[in-house]
């Protein structure tokens, strides 16, 4: 009897798709308008880490780097993100700028700073007063942990 070679079975379409998925790809993007927001926004990252939810942290300004914000938001879904958390203070334009360029859920985190007006009311109003068709969820002032919990609930839905 001659040599018997193993028969290779072609991968099914589902198996092929599954092998292409990067299991380490982030599901949640955390963006903030300034490096000074990092300490606060790391609380969202810590909550996601505790829940074993892959995430990424980025700093980008809606005012100083509008093209970068637009590109990030436009490519987020293609890169595997499912939710974006955007923290910003003062005019807090970042959550709305992100939401204008993606159909992913965007959660805004209003942040206080030394330049905040009325104890952060400026940031709150900037995030909650979005025009029709550009939805942004808003959590409490300086509460990125709640944003991470909401992101986890969105992912689980």
For the largest beta-sheet, the strand count, sense and barrel status come to:
5 strands, parallel
Secondary structure class reads: alpha/beta
Overall outline: globular
Instruction: Work out the strand percent.
Output: 15-25%
DSSP summary, beta strand count: 5
Radius of gyration computed on alpha carbons: 20 Å
H/E element order: HEHEHEHEHEH
What topology, given as strand order, has the largest sheet? 2-1-3-4-5
Helical content stands at: 25-40%
> How many helix segments?
6
N-end to C-end Cα span: 58 Å
Low-confidence parts? none
The pLDDT mean sits at: 90
Tell me about this structure.
There is one protein chain. The protein is 38% helix and 16% strand. It has helices spanning 13-20, 38-50, 66-76, 94-99, 121-128, 144-156; strands at 28-32, 55-59, 83-89, 106-111, 137-138. It has a five-stranded parallel sheet with strand order 2-1-3-4-5, sandwiched between helices. Helix 2 links the parallel strand 1 and strand 2 (55-59). The mean pLDDT is 90.
Task: Name a few traits of the molecule.
about 160 residues; alpha/beta; five-stranded parallel β-sheet; 6 helices; 5 strands; globular
Outline the secondary-structure elements.
Elements: H1 13-20, E1 28-32, H2 38-50, E2 55-59, H3 66-76, E3 83-89, H4 94-99, E4 106-111, H5 121-128, E5 137-138, H6 144-156
Parallel strand pairs: 1-2, 1-3, 3-4, 4-5
Helix pairs in contact: 2-6
């Amino acid at each position: 009897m001659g040599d018997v070679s193993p028969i290779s079975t072609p991968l099914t379409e589902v198996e092929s798709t599954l092998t292409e998925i990067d299991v380490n790809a982030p599901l949640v993007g955390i963006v903030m308008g300034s490096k000074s927001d990092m300490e606060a926004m790391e609380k969202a990252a810590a909550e996601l880490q505790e829940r074993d939810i892959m995430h990424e942290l980025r700093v980008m300004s809606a005012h100083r780097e509008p093209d970068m914000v637009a590109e990030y938001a436009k490519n987020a879904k293609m890169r595997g993100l499912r939710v974006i958390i955007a923290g910003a203070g003062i005019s807090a334009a970042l959550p709305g700028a992100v939401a204008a360029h993606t159909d992913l859920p965007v959660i805004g985190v209003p942040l206080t700073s030394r330049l905040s007006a009325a104890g952060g009311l400026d940031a709150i109003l900037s995030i909650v007063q979005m025009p029709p068709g550009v939805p942004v969820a808003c959590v409490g002032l300086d509460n990125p942990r709640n944003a991470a919990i909401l992101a986890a609930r969105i992912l689980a839905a």
